[in-house]
Design a protein that fits this description.
Layout: E1 4-8, H1 12-26, E2 30-34, H2 37-49, E3 56-59, H3 75-85, E4 90-95, H4 100-109, E5 114-117, H5 122-134, H6 142-145, H7 147-151, H8 158-168, H9 173-182, H10 190-204, H11 209-218
Parallel strand pairs: 1-2, 1-3, 3-4, 4-5
Helix pairs in contact: 1-5, 2-3
Length: 222
């Protein structure tokens, strides 16, 4: 079983609850906690530099603002920075987020090892996640493993991502079309671009381009 764990959670009750589960239910006693991402990162770096690295990171996604300026404001940034130094550290996200697209992104882009959605069964799920991740299993939650969730997933191809990227930079559809033609990327007709963008609006239920870009960035897709 894991012997050294870092917990990043800004709510004291949740933080202590996780520690109690790890200690009493699983038998892990070398646990350090942090209420902010920067604090968690500093504790991670200290342990790594002393060649006594953490084996598991359990982190929330969102953190309350502090009076100090935080370099890392979210769990996503914390995971990315820690993984850039210690790629093999196991990561379990413990969050209220229950949108399948957002959770799926965490597995696909950040390659997290487990996910626990806060709720009535969170204790059982966390215990199962820690055990499963220790056995090198990927612990995907029911939110993205049942058929209903999978059918509502939004799958984006390279052209979709390119369009979103260009829209986020303020380019119009005509300007994007010109770029696609110059880069010899197809389809690049006005109608095909209109259809793609309209489909993105429908998929993300966006009211306008600004709203679409905001939603996609919130999901961590850009």
């Amino acid at each position: 079983m894991f012997t050294k764990v870092l917990v990043a959670e800004d709510y004291e009750i949740a933080n202590q609850g996780i520690i109690k589960i790890l200690s009493d239910k699983i038998g892990i006693h070398n646990i350090q906690e942090a209420k902010y991402c920067d604090d968690a990162y500093l504790k991670f770096r200290k342990a790594h530099n002393e060649k006594e690295p953490f084996e598991l990171l359990i982190t929330d996604l969102s953190f309350r603002e502090d009076h100090k300026i935080q370099t890392r404001a979210s769990g996503i940034e914390l995971i990315e920075d820690i993984r850039s130094i210690q790629p093999d550290i196991k990561v379990i996200v413990y969050s209220q987020e229950n949108r399948p697209d957002k959770i799926n992104m965490l597995f696909d882009k950040l390659h997290i090892n487990g996910y626990v959605c806060k709720g009535p069964d969170a204790v059982k799920k966390l215990i199962a996640n820690v055990g499963g991740v220790y056995q090198n299993n990927t612990m995907r939650p029911p939110e993205i493993t049942n058929n209903t969730a999978v059918s509502t997933m939004i799958h984006l191809d390279d052209l979709d991502m390119l369009l979103l990227e260009e829209l986020s930079h303020g380019f119009t559809k005509k300007e994007i079309r010109t770029k696609l033609i110059k880069q010899k990327i197809s389809p690049n007709s006005e109608s095909s671009i209109d259809k793609r963008v309209s489909k993105l609006f429908d998929n993300f239920k966006a009211k306008n381009t600004t709203h679409l870009v905001a939603i996609v960035k919130d999901l961590g897709l850009l």
